[in-house]
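Pipeline run #58 for the internal structure catalog. This entry was flagged by the ingest filter as a single-chain record with no existing model, so it goes straight to prediction. Upstream metadata was stripped on purpose; only the residue string is passed forward. Reviewer on rotation: M.T. Logging verbosity set to normal.
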Amino acid sequence: MIILRVYRGVADHFPIRVSEWIMVWPAIGLWFGLQLDPVMFAKSSSFAFLAAWGDESTWASIVGLCAVCRLAALTINGTFKGFVFSPHIRAAASLIGVAIWSQVSLGFLMAFLVSGGAISGVIAWSTFVIAELWNVVRSWDDVGKNAAGR
């Protein structure tokens, strides 16, 4: 019964939360990528600053936490009717995403400016920051709607 309830909660809200679900992919992908390739940072000068700030296992832990937080927030959302803090949790997950992707983007930017890294990394990873900022705005809009409905 709980599995059906979780499924319905996710499925019912998926169309309006699709940008949040999309942001699960880079988090899970990078998490697994860093675990599968423990020398990823040594392969490109684009990772120079990320490597200076932490090794692959540290970054994998941070990004993995981001993925777990996002999955938890999206699972909670809509599954438990009457839980008014669901949009707050989604906003927090998106803010965690903003924090992580902005650091990754900054690392790629610094590597581009200082050590010959590729500008493409800056563009790609900063797109995730923009998407997460949009998710924060949408979540806080839901917070306001919930407050107005009470």
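catalog note: Residues 119-149 form the longest helix (31 residues).
catalog note: Residues 10 and 75 are 6 Å apart (CA to CA).
status: ready for reviewer M.T.
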